[in-house]
């Protein structure tokens, strides 16, 4: 635990912490139908997510805490977005959009499992691995896709009245399904490394007992 906070006072960690603080702000604005402001908060969160990694690498501010804080901020943000859109989709009058609302359960289950799994690993003194390429790609697809839906999705879009346009229901459904498929692929990509870490952990414990 002491090593976890070593060198943790960095700009990237501050940005990750700000992203976590922005989550309830986004949820409040979205739930209270202040969706343009919610989109702005989401954009700030996304930009900070982009910059914190670049700053960490460029200025050698990579830390053990940052490797945990960054994905936690990502997962909590994605969980919140999924919950908010699940509620909106299930309350939509458009039957097609209403039906696609259940797809958001895929995101909720995946992120919940990964958060719980990551916590279990930390309690067992196993350091969760960094995001694989599929994980990073799935996160990008999710953020871009959900931002488009929140901005101009049918019935839920923040800018629909302003632009006089909304995304067709079929296109919205495709975005949701593609994001869900990418999420499943990303989840499966973590499994080999996770199983390897657990296997090594139990092997080390068994070896220590036999000494």
Count up the domains: 1
Per DSSP E runs of 2 or more residues, the count of β-strands stands at: 0
Number of helices: 8
Q: Calculate the terminal CA-CA distance, rounded to whole Å.
A: 26 Å
CATH superfamily grouping: CDP-alcohol phosphotransferase transmembrane (TM) domain
Main β sheet profile: none
Helices and strands, in order, run as: HHHHHHHH
Would you give the CATH topology?
A: Four Helix Bundle (Hemerythrin (Met), subunit A)
Beta-strand residue percentage: under 5%
Average pLDDT figure: 84
CATH 2nd-level architecture: Up-down Bundle
Radius of gyration: 19 Å
Helicity range of the residues? over 70%
Spans with pLDDT under 50 lasting ≥5 residues? none
How is this fold's topology laid out?
Layout: H1 11-31, H2 35-58, H3 64-90, H4 95-100, H5 104-123, H6 133-152, H7 160-163, H8 169-210
Describe the structure.
By secondary structure, the protein is mainly α. The chain has a single domain, classed as Four Helix Bundle (Hemerythrin (Met), subunit A). The chain has helices at residues 11-31, 35-58, 64-90, 95-100, 104-123, 133-152, 160-163, 169-210. The longest helix is centred in the C-terminal third of the chain and has 42 residues, at 169-210.
């Amino acid at each position: 635990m002491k090593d976890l906070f070593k060198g943790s006072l960095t700009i990237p960690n501050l940005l990750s912490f700000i992203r976590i603080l922005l989550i309830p702000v986004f949820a409040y604005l979205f739930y209270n139908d202040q969706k343009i402001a919610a989109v702005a908060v989401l954009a700030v969160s996304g930009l900070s997510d982009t910059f914190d990694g670049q700053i960490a690498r460029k200025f050698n501010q990579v830390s053990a805490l940052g490797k945990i804080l960054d994905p936690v901020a990502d997962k909590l943000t994605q969980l919140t977005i999924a919950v908010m859109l699940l509620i909106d989709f299930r309350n939509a009058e458009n039957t097609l959009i209403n039906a696609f609302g259940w797809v958001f359960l895929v995101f909720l289950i995946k992120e919940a499992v990964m958060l719980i799994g990551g916590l279990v690993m930390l309690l067992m003194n196993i350091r969760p691995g960094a995001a694989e390429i599929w994980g990073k790609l799935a996160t990008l697809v999710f953020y871009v896709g959900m931002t488009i839906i929140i901005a101009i999705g049918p019935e839920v879009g923040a800018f629909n009245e302003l632009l006089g346009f909304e995304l067709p229901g079929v296109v919205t459904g495709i975005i949701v399904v593609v994001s869900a498929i990418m999420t499943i692929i990303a989840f499966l990509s973590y499994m080999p490394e996770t199983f390897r870490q657990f296997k090594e952990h139990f092997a080390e414990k068994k070896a220590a007992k036999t000494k």
